[in-house]
Amino acid sequence: MTSPSWPAVLRDGDVVLRPIKARDQRAWREVNRRNRDWLRPWEATIPPAAPGAPVAQRPTYRQMVRHLRAEANAGRMLPFVIEYQGRLVGQLTVAGISWGSMCSGHIGYWVDQAVAGRGVVPTAVALVVDHCFGTVGLHRIEVCIRPENAPSRRVVEKLGFREEGTRPRFLHIDGGWRDHLVFALTVEEVPGGLLRRWHQARSGNNSPTTGPATRPE
């Protein structure tokens, strides 16, 4: 897929989203390994295989990147890493992109505990939502979060996502099928852009703010 929507680099101040690359392996592994205990309760796991079925294995980093890039090239995914002050600190992926009468996708993310609470993830989510609505052409974005994941819930609450309900036993997380809360936004709900609304919320005023810089890679 070669278009203004992908590949793309999204930037707001110290926060940058850019496509994940094979050469990110060392930095990605270092951050992921250092945050094992922080991330484990919220990470997807592979359910037990049915009797007689082959046992699925977690992909290697390079296998993961090849899959993400193939999905991005097919228009079904936007796989970014998150950089903060020039350092890789996490990952954000828009997945499940559907067209036709739906025009939607869902966002998943993780971030280094060392930068949690600095507005990195809300800024990253706001950047990618504006990109999805304004450039990609999606109509709806979802974020599904375990009820126990208070930090992630705070992200969507700060950004004004609408809570829609619970999906029981929705995803296999941390070794079991877990309920998830569904949060969503449609393009009509953020006519001025989500990043602008986020800046206004942080500053406590309604003055205009500079929008994101987006460029093809």
TrEMBL record:
What's an example of a GO molecular-function annotation for this chain?
protein-N-terminal-alanine acetyltransferase activity
Q: What cellular component GO annotations does this protein have?
A: cytoplasm
Top-level taxonomic group: Bacteria
The UniProt entry, under Gene3D superfamilies, shows: 3.40.630.30
Q: Which InterPro entries match?
A: Acyl_CoA_acyltransferase, GNAT_dom, N-acetyltransferase
Question: What keywords does the record list, in alphabetical order?
Answer: Acyltransferase, Transferase
> What residues does the N-acetyltransferase domain cover?
15-188
- Keyword Transmembrane helix on entry: no
User: Pfam families given for it?
Assistant: Acetyltransf_3
From the record, what ranges are coiled-coil?
A: none
In the record, the note on similarity to other proteins reads: Belongs to the acetyltransferase family. RimJ subfamily.
Question: Known PANTHER family for this protein?
Answer: [RIBOSOMAL PROTEIN US5]-ALANINE N-ACETYLTRANSFERASE, GNAT FAMILY, PUTATIVE (AFU_ORTHOLOGUE AFUA_3G00765)-RELATED-RELATED
Protein name per the record: N-acetyltransferase
